[in-house]
Write a structure and sequence with these properties.
Structural class: alpha/beta
Helix content: 25-40%
Strand order of the largest sheet: 2-1-3-9-5-10-8-7
Shape: globular
Distance between the termini: 27 Å
Number of strands: 12
Order of helices and strands: EHEHHHEEHEEEEEHEEHE
């Protein structure tokens, strides 16, 4: 899904929770230093359970079947928070948005990417990602800072990405009711997502003590994946794709 050059700039949404001032402080300071405007977007807080309004937007049974384990309220809340950003984009008539989780670590090239409106070069650009499988050709030029490699399977991480209004519509259509983790409830190849290479956003070393969702994760029954309908289709796509290195070039 190739995006036309945006007539209006994308806002930056910093996805955070109330009370997480210290967690988002380094990112906010970086954005301020580089003169980048942003909005704090307060997500769904699942730490005390999910309210009935959110229960109506999730499918716990299907999530258990897909993951091979129960999905915790914190995980559902994280996925719902991203969906709420897509809804915000559509309700406000925005051309799209740049989404940064509050522990995102921007690289030097991110400011140049924003200045050149590189986000307008594809409908969805993953600025941070891990375990990323991409097509062997067809890269998108994201400007002087990176190439956009078309993803063939949804990678890990939602630390930073861009999403057009068109892509936001499709992500909601493919993902609701939520039955998988935030990264990602649907197959991003169906949205035409590309992965920025080199990555423009980094992330801190995972610390379960600081994660709002780590304590929710149960043990996955890995054997169950072999009987899931899409397993062998994903197996075939893996072998026809290329795995990006975890470290930058």
């Amino acid at each position: 899904m190739q995006a036309a050059m945006a007539a209006d700039p994308y806002p930056i949404f910093v996805l955070t929770l109330k009370g997480d001032e210290a967690r988002r402080a380094p990112l906010v300071a970086w954005l301020d230093r580089h003169g980048l405007e942003y909005e704090l977007f307060f997500g769904v807080d699942g730490r005390g359970g999910l309210a009935p309004e959110w229960e109506a937007q999730i499918d716990r049974a299907k999530a258990t079947a897909r993951l091979g384990r129960k999905m915790g309220d914190g995980e559902f809340a994280c996925a719902l928070s991203h969906q709420e950003i897509y809804r915000e984009i559509l309700e406000r008539g925005l051309p799209g948005a740049v989404v940064l989780e509050d522990d995102a670590v921007p690289g030097d090239a991110f400011a140049a990417f924003m200045a050149s409106r590189g986000y307008a070069r594809a409908g969805m650009i993953l600025l941070d990602h891990s375990n990323t499988r991409v097509a062997r050709g067809g890269a998108v030029d994201l400007g002087n800072c990176a190439l956009g490699r078309p993803v063939t399977m949804s990678p890990f991480l939602t630390t930073g990405y861009t999403v057009s209004a068109e892509a936001a519509t499709e992500l909601r259509r493919l993902s609701l009711p939520i039955s998988f983790t935030a990264d990602w409830p649907c197959d991003l190849s169906r949205v035409g997502a590309v992965a920025a290479w080199p990555r423009l956003i980094g992330h801190p070393v995972p610390d379960p003590a600081q994660s709002h969702i780590a304590v929710d994760r149960g043990r996955q029954r890995r054997w169950g994946r072999f009987v899931q309908p899409g397993y062998w289709r994903r197996w075939w796509r893996k072998r026809r794709s290329e795995l990006l290195p975890e470290t930058g070039p």
